[in-house]
Amino acid sequence: MPCPPDPFAHAWQDDAMPCAVIDIRSELRFWAETYARQPFHRSGTPFRHYVPTLKFAYDTYLLSRRRSLQELLPTLPSRYEAAALNGVRLDWPVASKVIARVWERLNAPLEDDPPLFAPTVMDERVLLERAMQHR
What we know:
The chain has one domain. The chain is built from six helices and no strands.
């Protein structure tokens, strides 16, 4: 079911707008914790230098209407250059790897994502034991 039209949204080619929400704060926390182990990481490059490129990747993904990254690649270098500030823009070879990793993460099956909260399974024996201890 398409989202209702937003008069302030990008002008789409058809009537249907993508319905997608990404918690960018959670995503940036994930990358802050893992960027040093990512294939795009360059030693000595602090996380804050990756943030504008990560945000560009998420924006591009949300606006892409689920098109493949390969389909978008011909236009991405110029769009990236226009969108990213000179002082914080990564070189395109590194930026393209960041964008590819974001695409992989967003297109991964949900089962591959770690749970947001540790699963807590309580069986009756544990509950009874705890209740007995508090008596």
